[in-house]
């Protein structure tokens, strides 16, 4: 199976969150199984160019039709830790991808409509005929629309589309000018409830809805979240479309790339370890404290790593910080947001706690530091309001760090409470709470910290159980291959 990923993110070069990890990890798994994969990305100015090898122009003159004219692009090729990546660089005054950030621009809908159009033109003009186009999130929702409404008629009859929704909250609701820009035109045809018209705002064009309607198969990133999106308000207005297309919709739990996230080999942690020998983990805890100037004391380290988005339960994150300090633990926060107000809020908190040697707040995106925090912490909190899958809890397990999570989406699918679970005791791997409030969080965090202080052997057993879990791409990789097979056979 020849797969082309069309995506706004790929770890570690263009990473905002889990989508980037998924594209890299799934692509690697597909290749291990003998399926060639190519990845098409925008050529952002703010990428981690130090993780791209052999970057060079491979397609000099790509002219992408846009409004009444065309935009000249160069397509670059390079290897990202072994993955074959193409980067689209437009030469126009719009400067679509030279903004110093990935998202959060006023013209995001136009930027990624252009990217989708350019990716299709690149496939057409370079004569590529992948079996599968695997698209991700709203940014690429127009790809299947363009495939079936435009490019099929230009001879691109071979590919089938798998569309993965990592987050229903951002759907790319925009105006009909995107139709003119991409030459899809025909607003009366597309702005129809069965096609791209937004269900809530009838003058809005919903790009993610287009992805759902036109793709051959739609996935979201955990079985539980597939149900939530279909049957609760977590579909953020798309539940009806999911219902109409339910026969081609399902949840596939994300995997974690166990080569990238491996405490036995991780180049970003000073001491390596595994489930049989945890000495390195305790040494990493010391290194983490040293790096962040935390005092060395008989205390567990509780951490939060994630985007500072209201979805992540930011009030609960703040409460987890103060509660941890109250019960004698240390707390580390690593996170950032495209919203300056949110970043500033946490920067103020950092100033306020500046002299506290049991607490560190780092506002920013720091891949290397994240690895050290996973390794050096005892407990990770993930108090999300909603969480389509969540990778942080699975990465934590791999690093022997006990997750404390709210029972939402993929968190509920992957973490089983030590004391209250219908899983066998030997399969329980963390602490879970239901209510998204302070009391709910405390009910789980208190048990985790209490176990660390009072029953260290039991705590260590829990760590080892988590490390023994297999949340690699092995199983979900097979699942995606089945989906690819299914839509090729139809
Ligand atoms: P989401 O996709 O909602 O952002 P996930 O839990 O699926 O959340 O994935 C988050 C990924 O991004 C993990 O690999 C996590 O380590 C990483 N990450 C999030 N915030 C940061 C940050 N500030 N610095 C470094 N890595 C981060």
Spans where pLDDT lies below 50 across 5 or more residues: none
> Radius of gyration, Cα only, in angstroms?
23 Å
Number of helices: 17
Q: Which class best fits the helix and strand makeup?
A: alpha/beta
Mean pLDDT: 97
- What can be said about the biggest beta sheet? 9 strands, mixed
% residues in beta strands: 15-25%
- Shape annotation: globular
**N-to-C terminal Cα separation, in Å?**
15 Å
Kindly state the number of beta strands.
Answer: 17
User: Which ligands are bound?
Assistant: adenosine-5'-diphosphate
Order of the strands making up the biggest sheet: 3-4-5-2-1-6-7-10-11
* Helix fraction by DSSP (H/I, runs of at least 4): 25-40%
Short description:
By secondary structure, the protein is of the alpha/beta class. The chain contains 17 helices and 17 strands. The radius of gyration is 23 Å and the shape is globular.
SSE map:
Layout: E1 3-6, H1 18-32, E2 37-42, E3 53-66, E4 69-80, E5 83-91, H2 108-125, E6 132-136, H3 142-149, E7 160-165, E8 173-174, H4 177-182, H5 187-190, E9 205-206, H6 207-214, E10 217-220, H7 223-231, H8 239-244, E11 249-251, H9 279-292, E12 301-307, H10 314-326, E13 330-336, H11 340-352, E14 359-363, H12 367-376, E15 379-382, H13 392-398, E16 402-406, H14 409-414, E17 431-433, H15 438-454, H16 456-468, H17 474-489
Parallel strand pairs: 1-2, 1-6, 2-5, 6-7, 7-10, 10-11, 12-13, 12-15, 13-14, 15-16, 16-17
Antiparallel strand pairs: 3-4, 4-5, 8-9
Helix pairs in contact: 2-3, 3-6, 9-12, 10-15, 15-16
């Amino acid at each position: 199976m020849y797969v082309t990923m069309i995506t706004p993110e790929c770890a570690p070069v263009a990473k905002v969150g889990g989508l980037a990890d998924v594209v890299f990890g799934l692509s690697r798994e597909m290749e291990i199984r003998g399926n060639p994969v190519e990845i098409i990305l925008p050529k952002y100015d703010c990428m981690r160019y130090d993780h791209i090898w052999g970057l060079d122009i491979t397609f000099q003159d790509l002219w992408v039709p846009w409004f009444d004219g065309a935009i000249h692009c160069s397509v670059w090729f390079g290897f990202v830790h072994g993955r074959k990546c193409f980067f689209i660089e437009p030469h126009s005054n719009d400067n679509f991808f030279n903004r110093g950030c990935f998202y959060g621009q006023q013209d995001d809908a136009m930027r990624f409509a252009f990217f989708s159009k350019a990716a299709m033109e690149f496939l057409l003009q370079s004569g590529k005929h992948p079996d599968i186009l695997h698209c991700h999130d709203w940014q690429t929702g127009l790809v299947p629309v363009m495939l079936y409404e435009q490019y099929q008629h230009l001879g691109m009859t071979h590919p089938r589309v798998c569309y993965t929704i990592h987050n229903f909250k951002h759907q790319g609701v925009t105006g009909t000018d995107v139709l003119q820009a991409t030459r899809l035109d025909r607003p009366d045809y597309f702005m129809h409830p069965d096609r791209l018209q937004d269900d809530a705002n009838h003058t809005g064009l919903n790009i993610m809805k287009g992805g759902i309607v036109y793709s051959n198969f739609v996935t979201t990133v955990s079985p539980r979240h597939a149900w939530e999106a279909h049957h609760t308000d977590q579909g953020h207005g798309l539940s009806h479309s999911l219902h109409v297309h339910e026969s081609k919709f399902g949840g596939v739990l994300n995997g974690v790339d166990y080569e990238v996230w491996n405490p036995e080999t991780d180049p970003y942690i000073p001491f390596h370890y595994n489930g049989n020998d945890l000495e390195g983990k305790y040494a990493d805890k010391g290194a983490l404290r040293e790096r962040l100037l935390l005092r060395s004391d008989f205390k567990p380290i509780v951490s939060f790593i994630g985007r500072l988005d209201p979805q992540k339960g930011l009030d609960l994150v703040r409460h987890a910080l103060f509660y941890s300090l109250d019960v004698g633990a240390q707390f580390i926060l690593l996170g950032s947001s495209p919203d300056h107000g949110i970043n500033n809020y946490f920067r103020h908190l950092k100033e306020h706690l500046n002299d506290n040697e049991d607490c560190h707040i780092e506002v920013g995106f720091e891949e290397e530091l994240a690895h050290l925090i996973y390794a050096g912490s005892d407990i990770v909190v993930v108090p999300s309001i909603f969480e389509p899958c969540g990778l942080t809890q699975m990465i934590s397990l791999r690093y022997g760090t006990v997750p404390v999570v709210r029972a939402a989406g993929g968190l509920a699918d992957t973490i089983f409470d030590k004391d209250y679970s219908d899983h066998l005791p030997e399969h329980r791997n963390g602490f879970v709470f239901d209510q998204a409030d302070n009391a709910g969080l405390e009910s789980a965090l208190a048990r985790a910290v209490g176990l660390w202080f009072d029953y260290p052997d039991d705590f260590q057993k829990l760590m080892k159980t988590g490390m023994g879990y297999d949340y690699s791409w092995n199983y979900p990789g097979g699942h995606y291959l089945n989906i690819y097979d299914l839509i090729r056979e139809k």
